[in-house]
Amino acid sequence: MNIGEVAERSGLPPKTIRYYEDIGLVRPLRSDNGYRAFRETDLHKLAFLGRARALGFSIEDCRLLLSLYEDESRESAQVKSIAEEHLTAIEKKIAQLEAMRETLSHLVMSCHGDNRPDCPILSDLATGPGDRN
Amino acid sequence: MNIGEVAERSGLPPKTIRYYEDIGLVRPLRSDNGYRAFRETDLHKLAFLGRARALGFSIEDCRLLLSLYEDESRESAQVKSIAEEHLTAIEKKIAQLEAMRETLSHLVMSCHGDNRPDCPILSDLATGPGDRN
DNA sequence: TATGGAGCTTCCAGTGGGGGGAAGGTCAAT
DNA sequence: ATTGACCTTCCCCCCACTGGAAGCTCCATA
């Protein structure tokens, strides 16, 4: 398989696939013409990576997950631990974003948004929360 | 004021302040010894930037917001529009993260996490959702 | 057989928003 | 005079790609 077909079947852009080879996540063979020659196992790995990335795992987490996937003697606790840590990080990120949303939505609602210059959003940014001068 | 005092009073690291000067967000004067000489207005701008960044606005949004803040003839609708767009982006990001959290938490709960190798997390990554082989 | 276009290769640079650290100048107190 | 804290510029590093240039190869068509 050439990279184009792998890209289509894995859903990953060719650039990303080359990058994944660069950093050692996949090791496709090479044809005589210098083209990358992907096996089904390479495609499978790339699809694995695509799904792991879609769940927000970092590249290094993906590398670990992939090696655990290929390790017959893995312990599921290792996998679960990585996933739990990532889940915690996601929840933390959500909490941060929700705090921003909270503040921002209040500010947006309190701004009349017309042609006049007074704006509680700018006032808040200028002097900090709770001050409306 | 030297950069250290401004850093302390604005809450921004010196590195960040230098970077903000680099990209033209602040323009402190220079003392004879080559040190940056910040005025109160510079400090005020930096604090403004710090609060805007804490609300997740991009640097370019911050640049716009700052120029609106300094523009006496602004219309609050311009500010509100930037804030609304950013709020929408935040909500979109939250939705993405919540989808990840949903999937991940199910996977984590379904993994026994012991010394055995079978792991529904890896199975899901290997074959896609809904397949447990 | 020539040609054209699609697909492949490598390499370099840039993204956003800074952070780390080196090499060197300056200031204030001892 | 020396120390140590502070300041300066400079360049590289992070993440996970993405865009683009220059130059291959392959295949179909005229």
TrEMBL record, chains A, B:
Pfam families the UniProt entry points to: MerR, MerR-DNA-bind
GO cellular component: cytoplasm
Glycoprotein among keywords: no
Keyword list, A-Z: Coiled coil, Cytoplasm, DNA-binding, Transcription, Transcription regulation
Coiled coil: 80-107
Key word DNA-binding present: yes
SMART domains for this protein: HTH_MERR
GO molecular function annotations of the record: copper ion binding; DNA binding; DNA-binding transcription factor activity
Alphabetical list of InterPro entries matching this protein: CueR (IPR011789), DNA-bd_dom_put_sf (IPR009061), MerR-type_HTH_dom (IPR000551), MerR_fam (IPR047057), Tscrpt_reg_MerR_DNA-bd (IPR015358)
Protein name: Cu(I)-responsive transcriptional regulator
